[in-house]
Structure formats: C-alpha cells, structure tokens
Amino acid sequence: MQVQLSHQVDVSSFHSEATRLLAQQVPPETVQWCPAPAHAVEEEDLAVGRAAIRNRAARAIIPQSFIRLSELVVLHRDPGRFDLLYRALWRLVYEPDLKNDFADADLSRLRQMAQAVRRDIQKMKARIAFRPLMVRGEPVQVAWYEPTHYVCETVGAWLARAEPDSHWVLLTPDRSLHWDGTHLLSAPAVAGVEDGQAMTDDERAQALEGLPWL
Fold this sequence. Notes:
The chain folds into two domains: 2-41 and 51-122, no CATH class; 127-208. The protein is built from seven helices and eight strands. The protein has helices at 11-23, 56-61, 64-73, 81-94, 105-127, 152-162, 201-208, and strands spanning 2-5, 32-35, 42-43, 131-135, 138-144, 168-171, 175-179, 184-188. The strands form two sheets. It has a six-stranded mixed sheet with strand order 3-8-7-6-5-4, with helices on both faces. Strands 1-2 form a two-stranded parallel ribbon. A hairpin with a 4-residue loop joins β7 and β8. It is elongated, with a radius of gyration of 19 Å. The protein starts with a strand and ends in a 6-residue tail after the last helix.
C-alpha cells in the first residue's frame, strides 16, 4: 500500500495517515510512504517545528512523547524515515512496554536522527550569513546555505521571528525562502543554487530573477 505525502516534511499528513492505518490495523511491512517534492509556492507557518496534531483520533492514538520526536525525524534526509516512524509507532501502540526499552534499535535510531537534525538546525543558525545583492536595480539581502537535512523552513521561521523587521531571501538546494517582514514564502530551489558559493554575483542575480517574489 502506497501512502502519498504532499512534501518531504509533511508531518501533519503522516500523523493523520498513520492514525488511519493503525485504526485499520495495517502492519508496517505493507505500507510504503511516498513524500512528494514540493513544487508550489506556499506561505510557511512561523510556528513550524512545533507539535500540531489537530485530529482528535490522532491525539488519542499517538503517544505524546512520539509527537515531538517525529517532527524532528521527518526533517532528516534518510529516505526511510517515514517507514521507521510508522514501524516504531505501530510497536509503541501494540507493544506498550516498548517505551521503557531504551536499548530498542528502532527507538535508538529515531533518537539519533532527531539529534542529528537538532545539530543541523543549530549549525545553520550559527553559520547563515546574508549580504546585499543587486537584483533588477534593487538591493536584496541574500544567503546561500546547504543544510545536511530538510531544516531550511524551520530555520527560516526562526529567523523571521527573531528579526521580524528584516527582509531577506534564503536559497538552499531544497527550497527558496523569502521573508518580506510579514509573510514567509517558500518556493522551489532556483537553478544553480546547489553550487551557489561558486557563482558570480551576476549569475546569482540572474538566478534570483526567476523567483516569484522579485
């Protein structure tokens, strides 16, 4: 059984679909999770990264301790993260004593993945640096960064909250982000950004012109 998710870090849909599958007693080995690449321009929630299970059934089934862990793990770049999450959740539901087994391989792997994501978030916060770039005759504060995991929206939301009066564009190989002082917008990565540090300023400005906000 294939389960489609709308994007690579779609934790909300994962929670909802996992609840539905658990209620139907669908075992993990029969489920294939399929997160889709994000192609649309979307407004990002400044509370991204915080627990938000709105479905009452999901809140009843999914252990609270698992919620925060899953929100970090989905940001990991491991392609099998959703499979591991659902297998661990299945076992937590049907093996109640599992939560006390700190040597369990599945839970240990999830904790390791969550810690790797935390480190990547902190590293990106510390190293990201914006500088002015002329785009269509206007100065734009721009930063290029290549995170290890899917953390750009999380860091972008943090930066928008920390410096609400700033205006900037953040480019990564995964997504492009723009904060205009009011809205945090996310769009597909621009061509060539995977080697952004090697680009000339003219090449960077030309790449930026393809963004929907500029």
